[in-house]
Design goal:
mainly alpha, 3 domains
């Protein structure tokens, strides 16, 4: 399974079929765990572990996984009192088929309002764009940011996420992000991976310490009043005035 291709396909599918925050969090949490399991077809994970990865309650996990299964994104098997087994449904192939089907429908409609030559030109442009996209994805998947395979996949996933939200990172921006990531979690690979996944799941352009709720999903608005945690002081203004008389 290609981690980057699956994430790109996942975001593409949400354009026409939006998901809730809980569903997105659970899908990314399961993808991360499956990656650590070396992409086994079926893997077992408890609700407690999923709650740590996603921030969801037990009822939230149960609701989100049922909805993901109905949409054909995952499959799972309950095992009584034991941890549930999960299976990630490969999306990159299904999205490709959907794209091909959509292109056929679009071509049939265009025949009714344009000439055969224009249809041929549109197909040629589409194929060129598709080749360019595949070439770009292949190049991105070959870039090595870290010697650790899991961390390297997480970094590439974050870079791809930034590209998907039309905020492409320059090489210098990536270097600065990696330095900031190292400052947040020196030598701690699991925490670095969790930080990157946190930003992807919340739609943040930047990276922040785990559990940092000061950044909103848009990552472009001003943060809330940074002094909101300071207690209000009860000042006796009359006492101050009379003390000066």
């Amino acid at each position: 399974m290609n981690y980057i291709a699956e994430i790109n396909s996942f975001w593409d599918s949400t354009i026409l079929n939006p998901l809730s925050t809980g569903q997105v969090a659970l899908w990314f949490g399961l993808m991360h765990i499956n990656n650590k399991c070396n992409w086994t077809e079926w893997f077992t994970v408890s609700n407690q572990v999923l709650s740590i990865h996603t921030g969801l309650s037990r009822s939230g996990i149960l609701k989100a996984r049922n909805e993901l299964k109905q949409r054909g994104l995952i499959d799972f098997k309950e095992r009584g009192t034991k941890a549930t087994s999960y299976k990630m449904v490969t999306m990159s192939n299904s999205v490709q088929v959907s794209t091909q089907d959509g292109e056929r429908v679009g071509t049939q409609d265009s025949v009714q309002v344009s000439t055969q030559n224009s249809n041929t030109l549109d197909k040629h442009k589409f194929k060129q764009k598709l080749k360019q996209k595949q070439k770009s994805e292949a190049k991105a998947s070959s870039i090595k940011y870290s010697d650790d395979a899991v961390l390297n996949d997480a970094i590439r996933a974050f870079v791809a996420f930034r590209k998907d939200i039309k905020s492409v990172m320059t090489d210098h921006a990536i270097d600065l992000m990696l330095k900031k990531l190292e400052d947040m979690a020196p030598g701690d690979i699991p925490v670095k991976v969790a930080i990157l996944n946190q930003s992807i799941m919340n739609g943040w352009k930047g990276i922040f310490p785990l559990g940092d709720k000061s950044s909103n999903a848009s990552d472009g608005h001003y943060r809330k009043n940074q002094f909101q945690d300071f207690p209000q002081r009860n000042i006796d203004y009359d006492a101050i005035v009379f003390s000066q008389l």
